[in-house]
Amino acid sequence: MNISEEMRDYLEDIDVTVHAISRITKLFQLTAELLPAGQEIRRIFISETMGEEGRIYGGAWFFTSDCLSEAHNFMTPNEFIDFYSFKNNFALINVKKNEFEFGAADTASRMRLKFMGISGSAMSGVTGELKASGKNCDYLYRITKEIFIPNTLFST
Asked: Global pTM?
């Protein structure tokens, strides 16, 4: 499986470097190979924030219809990948935004999403954090609205 044109457009739209795209592509392919039969990566998200010296990449997130995976530290040789089945399994979603309104993101815009998963009737300890700056805030907003919120414990 290869990264779709829509996913490439996303990476270009948020100005991901050519080197980072190369690393993301390799991890995308590895993640796709490890997924159970019938699961296909439908969306990606690059967690990042802006520091004083420019963009700081976090994790590369890959989403199927009911599973997510994060390639941590994807810009280093020490990356590792987590997988989590999330269908109706988010117990807590925490969203924070700064200088951001959907559709009007600018260079000052920031957004962060934190989540906690559940397993059975108990908190699973599975947590994650996705961060965005600038135009990437619009993408994180859509993922929050289309993937995370509909899969919270009581959203069915």
From this structure: 0.90
CB burial class (10 A; 0-12, 13-18, 19+) of residue 78?
exposed
Residue 156 within any structural domain of the chain:
no
Type of residue found at 89: N
Amino acid at 136: N
Rounded to an integer, the average pLDDT of 26-35 is: 94
Q: The domain that contains 34 carries what CATH number?
A: 2.30.29.30
Q: Which of 114, 99, 98 is nearest to 148 (CA)?
A: 114
For the four alpha carbons of 121, 123, 128 and 131, in that order, the dihedral sign comes to: positive
Residue 15 lies in a domain: yes
H-assigned helices in 18-151: 18-34, 136-143
Structure confidence by residue, pLDDT tens digits, 71-116: 998 998 877 888 888 876 788 889 999 999 998 999 999 999 999 8
Domain boundaries, position 86:
5-151
Which positions ≥6 away from 28 have C-beta within 8 Å? 1, 2, 3, 7, 41, 44, 60, 62
Sign of the torsion formed by the C-alpha atoms of 42, 84, 28 and 32: negative
Q: How far is CA 101 from CA 6, 9, 108, 130, 138, in A?
A: 23, 22, 11, 17, 8
